[in-house]
Write a structure and sequence with these properties.
Number of strands: 10
Distance between the termini: 44 Å
Helix content: 40-55%
Strand content: 15-25%
CATH class of the largest domain: Alpha Beta
Largest sheet: 6 strands, mixed
Number of helices: 6
Length: 225
């Protein structure tokens, strides 16, 4: 319910015809987190992950990103928390959003790109050590694992040709207009997937085969056994 508010006086004291400012009491909260650091240590992301998992469904978490990126495993920890967040997560590019930070940004449910915002996307780089067969096994596994992860994260945001080029070693730089146009396509595809998931849920419920729990538009469907 909207209520009149008077500066320096009680509500409703304005003279007839005077302009009024109205306010409404809401229970939702907005949390702002400045992701303006390198993703190079799990302890740095712990507070953010705790906030993401602890908000209420009507709350919003705004991630203000100005980061050169960092380690994939740290980014994955944040992405998991975003996917488990009961509320809305808005990714905001302040200026630089590079490397692993782009993964976190795309995991959000809504986005904002400021005028000088930039993204830089590249393929993974890593090192390993140990005995010869251990190194070979790690490289073989990475050659299967990382292309799959990369496609899942950047699907619809990058074209198939761009995904192949990046995996081969090409870096991609984007500015505001290009980022926004690509995000519009991502949002459209996610909405279609969400609608498809809801239709599947209705069919399953009618057949009384299992119980499916919708999480959010980015999550997969899980059957309760």
């Amino acid at each position: 319910m909207m209520k009149p508010y008077s500066l320096g006086g009680q509500s409703g004291e304005q003279q007839e015809g005077q302009p009024r400012t109205y306010f409404k009491e809401v229970s939702n909260k907005v949390y702002e987190h400045y992701l303006d650091y390198d993703l190079d240590d799990f302890s740095i992301a712990r507070e953010l992950c705790t906030v993401l998992r602890g908000v209420d469904p009507e709350d919003t978490v705004a991630l203000r990103i100005n980061s050169m990126g960092g380690r994939f495993d740290v980014a994955a920890q944040i992405i998991n928390a975003i996917n488990e967040c009961p509320g809305t997560v808005i990714g905001i590019i302040e200026q630089e959003c590079a490397s692993a930070a782009t993964m976190v940004f795309l995991a959000c449910s809504q986005w904002q790109v400021n005028p000088w915002g930039e993204m830089m996307i590249h393929y993974t780089s890593y090192g390993t050590g140990g005995k010869g067969h251990e190194i070979s096994a790690r490289v073989t596994n990475s050659d299967v694992f990382f292309p799959k992860v990369f496609r899942e994260i950047y699907e619809h945001f990058l074209s198939e040709e761009e995904i192949v080029d990046v995996i081969k070693g090409q870096d991609i730089y984007l500015t505001q207009d290009s980022i926004i146009s690509r995000l519009e396509l991502v949002a459209e595809k996610r909405n279609q997937e969400q609608e498809g998931g809801q239709n599947e849920e209705s069919e399953v419920e009618e057949a009384d085969q299992c119980v499916q729990v919708p999480e959010n538009s980015k999550k997969r469907w899980f059957n309760k056994g």
